[in-house]
Design a protein that fits this description.
The chain has 225 residues and is mainly α. α1 runs antiparallel to α9 and α3 packs parallel to α9. The longest helix has 33 residues.
């Protein structure tokens, strides 16, 4: 799980995110108002959808260059990104498809499908579970805990329309927390992808160096007359 070890630079970047996202959200509220900023189809929600699509693609790309537990973790992060995207993807009901996506039935079908895939996948990869248990016992999983904490904090505002006598303030807070969470999730994906690329390239270096040495040796061999 070396690709999932996060350094101080990552945490510094996450700290910047926790400052910048609320600041940008405040500017949007000032320019557009609370309802437009945090409402359905607003700038924060559109940003969340874009972040989740990018996160899914990046983790999927990382999984193609990983093995064993790291690949399993990246596949799980990809699926989780898609689930979050479908959760955030709210559009006006204009037909049968959008009506289904907006219905409780879709949520149940989505959950059932994800659980079924997870159970089957875990059945074939059960021997890797101890690796994840050891990883979770360390502090390296901190970024994902932070993402979960931000989503939980945003969820506390879900369904509320008033806070401190201000309409739509809970929605704006919820969307701001979720945007920060998804941006940090994207940053974890970028970190994992870069680490996977480096690790994928390392096994080829000894072979390349050996081949180069052989070519050098053959070219420097004495010429017999």
């Amino acid at each position: 799980m070396q690709a999932f070890v996060f350094n101080r630079r990552f945490w510094a970047t996450a700290g910047v995110v926790l400052f910048v996202v609320p600041a940008v959200s405040a500017l949007l509220v000032y320019a557009l108002g609370l309802e437009a900023t945090g409402g359905e189809g607003g700038p924060l929600e559109l940003a969340q959808e874009a972040l989740l699509i990018l996160t899914a693609l990046i983790y999927a790309a990382a999984a193609t260059q990983q093995r064993q537990a790291e690949r399993m973790a990246s596949v799980g992060a990809t699926v989780l990104s898609v689930v979050f995207f479908l959760r955030e993807f709210d559009r006006p009901v204009t037909g049968a498809v959008t009506a289904y996506l907006d219905s409780p039935s879709f949520r149940w079908h989505e959950t059932s499908l994800v659980v079924a895939i997870a159970v089957i996948y875990l059945a074939f990869r059960w021997r890797l579970i101890p690796v994840f248990v050891r990883y979770l016992r360390t502090l390296h999983a901190g970024p994902y805990v932070l993402v979960a904490a931000l989503l939980f904090a945003g969820g506390l505002m879900d369904g509320r329309h008033w806070l401190w006598g201000i309409a739509y303030l809970p929605t704006a807070i919820e969307e701001t927390a979720e945007t920060a969470a998804y941006l940090i999730f994207l940053l974890t994906g970028l970190h994992v992808f870069r680490a996977a690329r480096r690790a994928h390239a390392l096994p080829d270096l000894p072979r390349q160096e050996t081949a180069a040495a052989r070519r050098l040796g053959s070219s420097s061999a004495p010429i017999r007359s």
